[in-house]
User: What shape does this take?
Amino acid sequence: EAQVTQNPRYLITVTGKKLTVTCSQNMNHEYMSWYRQDPGLGLRQIYYSMNVEATDKGDVPEGYKVSRKEKRNFPLILESPSPNQTSLYFCASSLQGPPDTQYFGPGTRLTVL
Amino acid sequence: AQSVAQPEDQVNVAEGNPLTVKCTYSVSGNPYLFWYVQYPNRGLQFLLKYITGDNLVKGSYGFEAEFNKSQTSFHLKKPSALVSDSALYFCAVRDTGGTYKYIFGTGTRLKVLA
Assistant: This one.
């Protein structure tokens, strides 16, 4: 089944403890992206990647890192999480970049205490 | 700055009535416009998109949207709402400033009342 998977789905952590949220797609997509969803703010793009070893900032990259060493994986790294990074995170992928349709993962709900 | 606006936080409509969810955009050049839907506790699903050509775009689940360049709008419509259409709807636009970013609106919650 074609899908985007994220792990973990739920995570509660403490300020400053490094964490990684994994994202994987099995559709051989070139474009992958991370978003955060916050009430009243909608979805905001954190980082995107057009291909392996090609990543670029979205609108809210501060406090996040990404890497794209393989086409299928696009992990999101929070090196020193803070409470303002408490959010619902979505990974998405598309065959190429815009305007190709994005396929979204199920989301990761992160709470930073 | 490039942006997308969804002026209504919530839209209520009776089942069987037509629905409209509004979206306006501000980008330079020709926009790529999208609608996505999010059902409770789910990721977003693609509904439809406008790239070029016919201003009326038809999408999944009986939804359609009309691209209006003069009003910079891309409103989502459906002739007859179903209770199962109740969800959170997002409008999005591709950034035209030389990047491959997307800009999403704040979302509109659609509630279809039986």
Notes: The mean pLDDT of chain B is 94.
